[in-house]
Amino acid sequence: MPITPSSSCLLAAPVRPLSAPFSPSQQVNEAQRLAVEYVGQEGEPGHERRCTTLLAALAWTHCQFSQIGGADIKLARRDLIQHLARSCREEVDAEALADTLASLCVVNARNSQFPGSSPVHVLLAREVLATLDTRVDAHELLSDLIRSLSGEHDNGVDELYRSALCAWVAIGPQEWGDKGGRAIAKDRILNMADGKLDLRGLGLDCLPELPAGLTSLDVSCNNLTELPALPVGLVTLDASVNQLTQLPELPEGLTTLNVCVNQLPYLPELPTSLTGLGVRDNRLTKLPELPKDLTWLSAYNNQLTRLPALPTSLTELWVYCNQLTELPDLPASLALFDASCNQLTRLPPSVLSMPHDGQVYVENNPFSPAHLQRLRVATSVSRYSGPQIHFSVEAADVSIATARPLPEAVRDWFNSNEQAQVHRWRAHSEEAHAAEFSLFLDRLKVSVNYHAGFKMAVASWLSQLAQDGELRQLAFQTVQGATESCEDRVALTYNNLTKLSHAHAVTRGEYDARLDEIVDRGLGAFRLDALEKIARKKAQTLPLVDEIEVYLAYQVQLRDRLKLPTDIADMRFFHVSGVVPKDLRDAEQEVRAQESAEFPQYFLVEWEPWQQVLARLDPEGTERARRKLQDILPAYEQEMAARLANLRLPEDPDTQAQVGVGIMKAQQLEVYKELTREFLRKRDKEALMDQIMSTGGNLTPPSPPAGWPAFG
Asked: Quick check: 110 and 21 in contact, CB under 8 A?
């Protein structure tokens, strides 16, 4: 747009015409000084944004003020000042810089020998680019920016903003071919709709100035170390998974803030409108005052030592894995609270006022036995209407803090004449998770189960692990976290390892010559799975629960009664499990009832080790069974429709799914019954088929465990 110079203060003292590059005039020197002062130094907050702002200003002023005659120069000066002020630091005079740039441009316009970017513009652009880690040519960049100014926009501020975006793309790292992350971001900014802007996962290390009208911004999963000033109308902000070390002032209307997985040591003042706050995985040592309408707060994996007062509106709070030693009063509205893995010695009385369907997780805290007893009494009264509290018995019995070299931990399980076994383990000392496995063995050795028979069983198992790399890797992975609490968790983990080892042995063919033992292993796995489901249901009914103790209680107390394939015969903290004799009687009856109804389906169809046995020893029969299952698929829909009609059930998706599963299971069972019966007949083991189909009804249970009344 043509501009007519006026007698404004901007042109009160025009500079002398520039006749050569790099003029030593006072105006040029002043422009250089102000430009460098404006952009600052590399590494300072907002430095790159100020560089792009000034580069855009150089291109725009060249176009505007070089077109003498027509427009009010005051309007152009106003737009330029507004543009520069957006990124300007407090100590810098944006008006002085705008006046100097305009003055130089008017002089350049009168000097017709520089129709393009003038030497002064190139000089200033080069000064700006020198503060950046870039090889962009100043003359080429200015020429490109000048060409990008279409002149179609009446609003100079908008045109300046577009030019700054172009500069931001030009000086950024080049990646993704010709369409780098910055170019994609620029396109999305210029085409923003409904105030929503998605810039996640673009590999951005810096953001431009954000557009006006922005209400929702997602810049997660980038490499940002800072954020620009946030628009006043911003409502939601997701800047998670970056490298932020500080946040700008937050808009008053912000309702949701997610800055999880960053490097923030502190937070700014939070707006009163905030209802959701995610700050997990940072370096926070404290939190600011929380807004009164906050409904959820995720602040786990920080270094918090205390919490501020909690708003009465709060319904969900995650603060696990911090350094909390005490808690404030918990609001009655709180439905989910997780403060596991802290240093809490007590819970505030207000925890009992949380909703009845609320969940409290405080595992791995050093609660005293006296405090746990008080909680147990409070939650055991008939009128208790508070939440379910999940705790774990603290490993106060643990004297082993660090892992020994793995061969040393293994040596203790073998007799002096078996030390050759120990030498095999030297080769495994550097394998992944070997240290955790060593600590697991030491914790197992100081448990209540350690005796001669148990030692022999573990030694035999270790001999298997030494020769089987796949099983050893599975064992090393399984013990992760097993030593973080009491020895009962170690014991339960060992039971799980025993079950895993049995299944692995069947799968590898170690029982191929002992098919009857495979059935026994399958039955043991079925019973353990059934008890796990029963224990899970029981744990859900207890107001104060350590799930480890509940699961282990059923396995230990019913080990002999159900002939469970486990070596753990005792546990340290049965008294806190909440499992009573009636629970054990009911569990035994339920397991036996399930055996009669469900074991054939479990063993023949669902138990993967048996499927591996069939595939290995009878590949032709297995292939015939697979084809047969495929052949009956076309009749599946017809049978399901007929079943729904006979039962007068609606043909909605949920009902169809339930009926369909039943039909499919029945078809699979018939196919694998036929396959297994023929497989066993060829080996003169057909009697095993009758055992599989009738297991549960033909077993004579042994005597009940010592100390318990008869279960009958």
From this structure: no
Closest alpha carbon to 558 in 533, 538, 528? 528
In 3D space, the residue among 457, 461, 458 whose CA is nearest the CA of residue 472 turns out to be 461
Is 105 known to be catalytic? no
Average pLDDT over residues 528-542: 95
The count of residues in the chain is 712
> Tell me, what amino acid is at 664?
M
Question: What per-residue confidence (pLDDT) applies to 295?
Answer: 98
Whole-number average pLDDT of the chain: 85
Beta bridge partners of 197: 217
Contacts of 481 (CB under 8 A, 6+ apart): none
- DSSP letter at 231 equals P
Average pLDDT over residues 590-611: 95
Mean pLDDT of 133-139: 86
Domain ranges of the chain: 3-171, 406-602, 618-694
CB atoms within 10 A of CB 299: 23
CATH number of 406-602: 1.20.58.360
pLDDT digits (tens, 9 = 90+) for 544-570: 989 999 999 999 999 999 999 999 999
More confident residue, 650 or 212: 212
Single pTM value for the model: 0.76
The model's pLDDT over 77-112, given as tens digits with 9 standing for 90+, comes to 888 888 888 888 877 888 888 888 877 765 555 554
DSSP-assigned beta bridge partners for residue 338: 318, 361
Q: For residue 6, what pLDDT is reported?
A: 29
Q: Tell me which of 88, 206, 321, 486 is the catalytic residue.
A: 486
What count of Cα atoms within 13 Å lies in the side-chain half-sphere of residue 580?
Answer: 2
Distance CA 111, CA 89 (A): 33
Report d(CA 221, CA 223) in Å as an integer. Answer: 7
Antiparallel, parallel or unpaired: β 336-338 and 316-318? parallel
Euclidean distance between CA atoms 563 and 543, whole angstroms: 31
Other beta carbons within 10 angstroms of residue 242's beta carbon come to 23
Q: What's the CA gap between 691 and 672, in Å, rounded?
A: 15
For domain 618-694, the question of CATH label 1.10.3470 is answered with no
pLDDT (mean) for 441-461: 92
Secondary structure of 240-274 as H, E, C letters: CCCCCCCCCCCCCCCCEEECCCCCCCCCCCCCCCC
Of 220, 117, 228, 124, nearest to 168 by C-alpha is 228
406-602 and 618-694, same CATH topology: yes
Residue 317 pairs with which residues in a beta bridge?
A: 297, 337
| DSSP line for 65-113 | HTSBSSEEHHHHHHHHHHHHHHH--TTS-HHHHHHHHHHHHHHHHH-TT
**Three-state SS at 569:** coil
Q: In what order do the strands lie in the sheet with 544-545?
A: 196-198, 216-218, 236-238, 256-258, 276-278, 296-298, 316-318, 336-338, 359-361, 388-390, 544-545
By the 8 A CB rule, do 471 and 465 touch? yes
Judged against a pLDDT cut of 90, whether residue 12 lies above it is answered with no
**pLDDT (0 to 100) of residue 83:** 85
Q: 389 near 336, Cβ under 8 Å?
A: no
